Amino acid sequence: MAEGPKQQMPARRKARKRALDVLYEADLRARPAVEVLASYLQRLEQRPEHLSYAIGLVEGVAAHQSRIDELIESYAEGWTLDRMPVVDRNLARIAIYELLYVDEIDDAVAISEAVELARQMSTDDSPRFLNGVLGRIADYATR
């Protein structure tokens, strides 16, 4: 039974990466995320196991984006959404969606996954920045 969570982590990380790809493209092109997702799904030759979680992340972020962005604006001290790197903005959106709306994901996991992806894909300052913002939002959400 202990093997289940270990096997899920890489799959969920892949799902987050796919969701990030879609949200990043939607953000850059100023197109609705669900529209970009539909185009992305048409281009896929295979449907990996983690794809349904990625789809859920994109659809969830899209459905709650105004609330999520409001939280980012409130808790990203000294930063506006427009000033944030696109990767960071969308990693924050994914993590906040998980913090607020995905009960099966622990807050610490949502935050550490966003930080790890930022470490791999964004600026040197991004992991610390996201950790701080997401930590403050997680504190707010558990009140």
Q: What would your notes on this structure say?
A:
This protein has 143 residues and is mainly α. The protein has one domain (3-141): N-utilizing Substance Protein B Homolog, Chain A. 77% of the residues lie in helices and 0% in strands. It contains six helices and no strands. The chain has helices spanning 3-29, 33-43, 51-75, 86-101, 107-121, 126-141. Helix 1 packs across helix 2, helix 1 packs across helix 4 and helix 3 packs across helix 4 (86-101). The longest helix is centred in the first third of the chain and has 27 residues, at 3-29. The N and C termini lie far apart (32 Å). 35% of the residues are buried.
What separation lies between the terminal Cα atoms?
Answer: 32 Å
The ordered string of helix (H) and strand (E) elements is HHHHHH
CATH superfamily: NusB-like
Q: Strand tally, please? A: 0
Please name the CATH topology: N-utilizing Substance Protein B Homolog, Chain A
Helix/strand class: mainly alpha
Total individual domains: 1
CATH class: Mainly Alpha
- Overall average residue pLDDT: 92
Low-confidence stretches: 1-8
The portion of residues assigned to helices is over 70%
Number of helices, counting only DSSP H or I runs of 4 residues or more = 6
CATH architecture: Orthogonal Bundle
| Biggest β-sheet description | none
In angstroms, what is the radius of gyration? 14 Å
Global geometry? globular
Binned strand content: under 5%
